[in-house]
Amino acid sequence: MLKINNLHAKLEDEDKQILKGVSLEVPAGEVHAIMGPNGSGKSTTSYVLSGRDGYEVTEGEVTLNGEDLLDMEPEERAAAGLFLAFQYPVEIPGVGNMTFLRTAANAQRKARGEEELSAADFLKLIREKAKTLNIDADMLKRPVNVGFSGGEKKRNEILQMALLEPKMCILDETDSGLDVDAMRLVADGVNALRSPDRAFLVITHYQRLLDHIKPDVVHIMADGKIVKTGGPELALEVEQNGYADLLAEAS
Amino acid sequence: MNDAALKTREAVASEKDELSLRLNALSLPEGGFTAPARADALSRLKSMGLPHPRDEYWRFTDPRPFNAPVPAAIPLAGKGPDSPLFAERDRLILVFVDGEFDPSSSSDLSLDGAEIDILSRADAQADHWAKDLYGKLETAGQNPVERPFAALNTAVAREGALIRVTGKPSRPVHIVHRREREDADVTWHHVIRVEPGAELTLLETGMVGARSNGVIEADVATGGKLNHIAAKRAGHQKLGFSAVFARVDAEAAFKSFALSVNGTLMRHEAVVEFVGDDAIAHVAAAVLGDGNRGPFHHDDTVFITHDAERCESRQVFKKVLKNGAVGVFQGKILVKPGAQKTDGYQISQALLLDDDSQFLGKPELEIYADDVVCSHGSTTGAIDETALFYLRSRGVPRDRAIVLMILSFLADALEEVEDEGLREEISDRLDAWLTRHA
Predict the structure, then answer these.
(1) Which residue in A52, A108, A164 is closest to B389 by CB distance?
(2) Which residues make Cβ contacts (< 8 Å) with residue A26, sequence separation at least 6?
(3) Residue A104 to residue B394, Cβ atoms within 8 A
(4) Which of A64, A82, A90, A154 to mutate to test the interface with B (most CBs of B within 10 A)?
(5) Which parts of chain A are beta strand (E)?
(6) How many of the other CB atoms lie within 10 Å of CB of B417?
(7) Which residues contact B389 (CB under 8 A, 6 or more apart)?
(8) Do B398 and A90 count as a contact with CB atoms less than 8 A apart?
């Protein structure tokens, strides 16, 4: 599914290398977690994968189902099946959530050469998805993320994921700003989307999200590289002992 | 005599010549109930002279193209949108072609709850209800700011709608401008009187002329309400001056929203005066300017005078500018002594889509009462890259994402259109226009 090979990236405006050789592979059907201390390059990895401006890839390759991801615009990556759930979903006043979701869904369908959804079909589909995720229909009528609580914003991200049905989902510190109940709701939504042909990359600081979204593989990131890879027990080790021992061991 | 004094004398002489040339090119109306107001306006105009860039409120907008004796002929615009705005709505239509009322294209003027006249017909009478208002509100509000173009309008206007609202008409009045001549130099002057407790929605659309000078005088009596929505579209008049003067009495509401899409040199003034307690006035505009479609300079100048207690004023001005377009906003809230519990708010914002465009803002507050809430803000910025990325990361193509961001930016101004159906129609039309010109 997703293959990252020796990825190096720096900030465009500064001569500061952030990613220094990230390599990992996430096969279809698996959930991988990336953990690491602040400043290790976790969020940068998600931005570089999804094509955010401001970063320059200086070395390495990334493919999604064999397609060169780095050669695509952000919207092309989305149409190819990549989805990034934001750590801080953006508020867009004046644009209805429903309008945004329909625009996104149809833009992706069009890019893939599929027929666009009619207004009626879209309405039926989105109501169905919202119901499955226990999302209040009122959220669909409001402007994108405006006035949403932290939990609502993250649930809106999961709703978008459910609607767009991406192949590769990246969750960038989705647990930040969530209380325990909201985190469980979000995790339930993610778990409902797990399938043999979909993969997840969950970026997180803490073990607690991984209590609800059980990863198959855990990667520890430090100083722009994956320094250790293991099973779910690695996350528990971080929770108990912090990163210091792991980083010392890796160096 | 030193050089500076000599220059000043020469400049004054030149400006007098300019005004003489401007007036000589016009044939001034005579007689009718407007005669005293016209004579007064002409006298005021001669005393003021035409505006000059050195005038404080014209420092950002060079008025000289408005001062030319006759406007340059401007080729007629190409085909407009498939259907005019508000076409699906049940409304009373008043059509003005190159500034002349066209009865054959207009609706019957009967409307339950309103009395409608056309200025060119009504002015044959010696007396009329509009006599107490024509040219009167135009002189009010925040002296010593001079408004020579409004005075010129009062002096020379032959056409306009005279609407006295006595009830709550079930349908809006829609003034439609059509442009058929390349050199149309149009002056129109509407007078609206909303009687106590009455309500009206007034719509204005269309292409006016090569040059236009339009004035609305609106008197909203106690408990009355006037919603004014003007939507000018691409290909509208190239040089446009317009002004709305509103007097708002106790517990009354005046709301005015203007959408402006392109043009060459546009200046819109709103002058609102609260004369009764517990009233509200909202003035808003959404402006789109693209310098690639010809030079673009759009100026909104607003004066709100609070001379009563517990009144609420809102100014929401949004401009989207690109390819060298220039936007101007000057807005002043004056709170007179005794206008306690005033709630005044003013926001002017520009979204610059490139580095070549510019926005000039001059917000002002002048407050002589001590128990008020007044605030103003003005920002100039670019598209929020994070939000743009958010939309693109969901698969929305860049051009479409920019259109959504622009609509998002304009949303606060559009919110001032109270009627949801009208608001959605304007928003849909804006969306379509932006999509075509992205």
Answers:
(1) A52
(2) A1, A2, A32, A168, A199, A200, A201, A217
(3) yes
(4) A90
(5) 2-11, 17-26, 31-35, 55-64, 67-68, 82-85, 92-96, 143-144, 168-172, 199-204, 217-222, 225-230
(6) 24
(7) A50, A52, A53, A74
(8) no
What's the start-to-end Cα distance of chain B, in Å? 57
ipTM of the complex: 0.94
- Cross-chain CB nearest to A108 (options B389, B395, B409): B395
Nearest by CB to B395, from A75, A90, A94: name it. A75
* Residue indicated by tokens 């990163």: A243
Nearest to A92 among B408, B410, B412 (CB): B408
Closest to A186 measured CA to CA, from A160, A157, A207: A157
User: Helix, strand, or coil here: B254?
Assistant: strand
Long-range own/partner contacts, residues A180-184 (CB < 8 A, 24 or more apart): A181/A151, A182/A149, A182/A150, A182/A151, A182/A154, A182/A155, A183/A208, A183/A209, A183/A212, A184/A212
Question: What CA–CA distance (Å, rounded) separates B389 from A11?
Answer: 16
| Chain B, window 371-410: residues with a beta carbon less than 8 angstroms from a chain A beta carbon | 384-387, 389-398, 400-401, 404-405, 407-410
Comparing CB atoms, the residue among B386, B389, B408 nearest residue A95 is B408
* Lowest mean pLDDT segment, chosen from A21-30, A135-144, B217-226: A135-144
CA distance B421 to chain A (A): 15
**Binary contact (A94, B391; C-beta < 8 A):** no
CB contact under 8 A, B398 and A111: no
| DSSP 8-state code for residue A70 | G
Q: Which residues of A touch B389 (CB under 8 A)?
A: 50, 52-53, 74
> What distance in Å separates residue A214's CA from the closest CA in chain B?
26
CA distance B281 to B274: 8
Q: What is the pLDDT of residues A143-192, one digit of tens each?
A: 999 988 888 898 899 999 999 999 999 999 888 878 888 888 888 888 98
CA distance B62 to chain A (A): 34
H-helix or E-strand containing A74? helix A74-79
Please tell me the distance from the alpha carbon of residue A89 to that of residue A145, in angstroms, as a whole number: 7
pLDDT attached to residue B1: 46
The burial of A38, by beta-carbon neighbours within 10 Å (0-12 exposed, 13-18 middle, 19 or more buried), is given as: exposed
Q: How many residues does chain B have?
A: 438
- Chain A closest-CA separation from residue B389 CA (Å): 6
Per-residue pLDDT of chain B (438 residues; tens, 9 = 90+): 455 455 566 666 676 788 999 998 888 888 899 999 999 999 999 999 999 988 889 999 999 989 999 888 887 765 555 567 898 899 999 999 999 999 999 999 999 999 999 999 999 998 999 999 999 999 876 565 789 999 999 999 999 999 999 999 999 999 999 888 989 999 999 999 999 999 999 999 988 888 999 999 999 999 999 999 998 765 656 889 999 999 999 999 999 999 998 788 999 999 999 999 999 999 999 999 988 877 899 999 999 999 999 999 999 999 999 999 999 999 999 999 999 999 999 999 999 999 999 999 999 999 999 999 999 999 999 999 999 999 999 999 999 999 999 999 999 999 999 999 999 999 988 898 888 876
If you measure CA to CA, which chain B residue comes closest to A52?
A: B389
Q: How far is A73 from chain B (nearest CA, A)?
A: 8
Please give the residue of chain B at the shortest CA–CA distance from A78. Answer: B395
pLDDT of residue A189: 84
Question: CA–CA separation, A100 vs A144, rounded Å?
Answer: 7
Question: Does the distance separating the beta carbons of A75 and B408 come in below 8 Å?
Answer: no
Question: Which residues are A201's β-sheet partners?
Answer: A32, A170
